[in-house]
């Protein structure tokens, strides 16, 4: 038995509420269960109960055993002075206030349907599964699932907002600077994302503003600060970039100590840092006030037009500085822009609108639904459970479900877990 299950039983009134009695035989009538407290202090605030034909207003504390009250030292904590009912699974000792007045105790297991206990045990049985409810997922109502996925999607955006607000504080409320840092991380993808972010953090955005009008200088700045211009030049272009970076490094007193090393191993050539940084330089060279323009976009096509960029001419025949390759223009694909929209643009717009008090969830939902579903191990796992994702909104929601609920056994806080227990 887990305490969070007892919270679930009380919060959703999953017990017989007629003829409730305390350990001393006093009748209990529930008027208000109280507000679930997820922080320190009693488990439910502002409950209203009739106990022994007297109206009480106060807090409810829940434990597996009555003796947990003393184990947790609540008897010496003023926060628990206003507890009017102690709800327990097993009553092994009487509980008293500081005044030696007994605290009424309700033994919850006496009022629970055995089938609910069986469902709970089945959900959390010890046999290792991908998710606890994988054998019962087929019974989840489609309407409930879709509603829960949309809520999870916004939960995920809220989680990403925390990191964005931190970047905003570090950037002194410069949204363009925050966008640059987040785009750097996105252009680095999974393998080099963190390294690209340290690169962005090592360059004050004012330097990007001063350099962006000169494409070669901006490319030299990014490639050089990333440590990609340190080897002896093999081509004239490589040599020019190196000279440009040495000038910029001295002019702006740049420091590379905090920049993480970049990885080429196990990357497709189109994802090489050289290519991605050149594409990023081209994007910032061609677009002025990029963040403001992104706020004006309302369709996926608009974002595609705004975020399209191509690596400079040298990279048509190269993936690195040291080997010639077959000619091909290195433009960002729509699939790559989709990832940027999912991981950077939508969360950033969501955070901006929320901070401005002008949140328009309908537009963000429409945009996320217009983006193709992602493909990864989590999405494949749900596909085996016959959950087919139609859009990025659903895949992002499923990632949130798996990582923040399934993996952490938070089934009792999950709408799916709740519905399965209530079947």
From TrEMBL:
It comes from the Bacteria. This is DUF2851 family protein. Pfam families: DUF2851 (PF11013). It comes from Gaetbulibacter aestuarii. InterPro entries: DUF2851.
């Amino acid at each position: 038995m887990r305490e969070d299950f007892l919270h679930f039983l009380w919060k959703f009134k999953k017990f017989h509420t007629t003829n409730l009695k305390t350990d001393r035989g006093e009748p209990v009538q529930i008027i208000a269960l109280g507000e679930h407290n997820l922080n320190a202090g009693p488990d439910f605030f502002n409950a209203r109960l009739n106990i022994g034909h007297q109206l009480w207003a106060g807090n409810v504390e829940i434990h597996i055993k009555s003796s947990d009250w003393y184990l947790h030292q609540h008897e010496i904590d003023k926060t628990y002075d206003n507890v009017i009912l102690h709800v327990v699974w097993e009553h092994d000792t009487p509980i008293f206030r500081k005044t030696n007045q007994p605290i009424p105790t309700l033994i919850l297991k006496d009022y629970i349907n055995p089938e609910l206990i069986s469902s709970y045990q089945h959900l959390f049985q010890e046999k290792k599964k991908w998710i606890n409810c994988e054998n019962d997922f087929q019974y989840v109502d489609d309407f409930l699932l879709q509603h829960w996925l949309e809520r999870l999607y916004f939960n995920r955006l809220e989680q990403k907002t925390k990191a964005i607000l931190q970047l905003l504080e570090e950037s002194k409320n410069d949204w363009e600077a925050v966008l640059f840092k987040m785009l750097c991380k996105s252009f680095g993808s999974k393998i080099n994302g963190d390294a690209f972010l340290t690169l962005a953090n090592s360059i004050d955005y004012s330097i990007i503003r001063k350099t962006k009008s000169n494409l070669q200088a901006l490319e030299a700045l990014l490639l050089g600060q990333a440590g990609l211009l340190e080897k002896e030049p093999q081509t004239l272009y490589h040599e020019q970039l190196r000279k440009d970076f040495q000038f910029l490094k001295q002019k702006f007193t740049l420091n590379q100590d905090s920049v993480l090393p970049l990885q080429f191993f196990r990357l497709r050539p189109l994802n090489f840092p050289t290519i991605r940084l050149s594409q990023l330089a081209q994007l910032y060279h061609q677009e002025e006030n990029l963040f403001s323009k992104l706020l004006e976009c309302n369709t996926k096509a608009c974002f595609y037009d705004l975020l399209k960029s191509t690596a400079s001419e040298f990279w048509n025949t190269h993936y690195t500085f040291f080997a010639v390759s077959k000619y091909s223009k290195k433009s960002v694909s729509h699939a790559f822009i989709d990832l940027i929209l999912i991981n950077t643009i939508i969360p950033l717009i969501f955070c901006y609108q929320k901070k401005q008090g002008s949140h328009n969830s309908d537009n963000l939902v429409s945009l996320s639904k217009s983006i193709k579903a992602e493909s990864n191990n989590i999405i494949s796992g749900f596909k085996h459970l016959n959950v087919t994702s139609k859009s990025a909104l659903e895949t992002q929601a499923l990632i949130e479900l798996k990582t923040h609920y399934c993996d952490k056994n938070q089934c009792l806080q999950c709408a799916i877990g709740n519905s399965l227990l209530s079947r």
